[in-house]
């Protein structure tokens, strides 16, 4: 394709309820969209970065800047570019994987729309549905947590992920496991612990958890390896997994039993596919992580998660999990505990331009 225009649009969607994480409390989700126009048609991408650099060093303003001044110029050339060559053209720019992912995503959407093919078809997936999994932020008490889990179990979710941190862990998990003995349950610490907490975290083995996600900081692979040697519960990494090489290092060190794969974090869906294939060859279980995406990012994640290597339910929930109003014309819904893999061209969702204008902040 020959790209003619790249628009970067920031929208702010109100959250249905405050989202409490170790990085703070969110009442709205500011998200950056990339609208690409080319000689083969239009495509849309979504950037996973949040307004604040809490979860990652990238944030909305940094992504806008790097897209405008460093990434878009490299692709706005008179020569042909494709989604598979985009990462090479953007490679001279260090980091900014979430920004790169959004631009590459818009190119994938445009290419597939022009071909009349769905993203799922281009991935070669055969599954028509994926299991719905929900992430629950910190609750005020174990009883409140159990009420919220009950509402999601009633809604059909097959897997629940709980946020934990020192002082907000064992009693909450214990209450959840007592009330839901058969529920697929996992915990995510977002790096809130250190290796000094290994003896405390050994208690996680009492709860038959699917995994414990990112208990320690992003770069403490040795700490995660020590914990993995101590626990029966699989250790899952999120932030440190940014490429095939970092996945291989983490696995070689014994720091990673399970991979949380997020296309935005690894630089795009092309890189995500490569990590998926690497993990499949080595029987490393995968699941698709979430970043409170709009229906656009959710649709792309659902198709990705339909690949055979995604053996565990992901953070794949309905648009209504976080948003009263989603910016796609057909919000993502959970039915019978699953989400249908989009079959339309591109990512299979249509953006509602009126809603984008209504929620646009930049
Ligand atoms: O279901 O989209 C979702 C949210 C899943 O908990 C989720 N994401 O650490 O993976 C994470 C976590 C997150 C939340 C990351 C907020 C960044 C900010």
Task: List its salient traits.
362 residues, alpha/beta, Enolase-like, domain 1, TIM Barrel, 2 domains, 3-stranded antiparallel β-sheet, 13 helices, 12 strands, 36% helix, 20% strand, globular, binds N-succinyl phenylglycine
Portion of residues in helices? 25-40%
For the record, what CATH class of the largest domain applies? Alpha Beta
Output mean pLDDT.
97
Rounded to the nearest angstrom, the distance between the terminal CA atoms is 27 Å
Strand content: 15-25%
Q: Which homologous superfamily in CATH is the superfamily of the largest domain?
A: Enolase-like C-terminal domain
Largest sheet strand order: 5-6-7-8-9-10-11
SS summary, helix count: 13
The H/E string reads EEEHHHHEEHEHEHEHEHEHHEHEH
> Can you tell me the CATH topology of the largest domain?
TIM Barrel
Largest sheet: 7 strands, parallel
Overall body shape: globular
**Bound ligands, each once:** N-succinyl phenylglycine
Question: Per CATH, which architecture of the largest domain?
Answer: Alpha-Beta Barrel
| β-strand number | 12
Structural class: alpha/beta
Low-confidence parts = none
Query: Over the alpha carbons, how many angstroms does the gyration radius reach?
Result: 20 Å
Number of domains: 2
Structure explained in plain terms:
- It is globular and about 60 Å long.
- It has two domains: 3-116 and 352-359, Enolase-like, N-terminal domain (Enolase-like, domain 1, 2-Layer Sandwich), CATH 3.30.390.10; 121-340, Alpha-Beta Barrel (TIM Barrel).
- It starts with a strand and ends with a helix.
- The protein is an alpha/beta fold and 362 residues long.
- It has helices at 60-75, 83-90, 97-115, 119-123, 142-154, 170-179, 198-201, 221-230, 244-252, 263-266, 269-281, 295-305, 353-359, and strands spanning 3-21, 24-38, 41-47, 129-131, 133-136, 159-163, 184-188, 212-213, 235-237, 258-261, 286-288, 338-340.
- The mean pLDDT is 97.
- The longest helix has 19 residues, at 97-115.
- Strands 5-6-7-8-9-10-11 form a seven-stranded parallel β-sheet. A three-stranded antiparallel β-sheet has the order 1-2-3. The protein has a two-stranded antiparallel sheet with strand order 4-12.
- 36% of the residues lie in helices and 20% in strands.
- The chain is built from 13 helices and twelve strands.
- N-succinyl phenylglycine is lined by residues 21, 50, 55, 135, 188, 190, 238, 289-292, 315, 317.
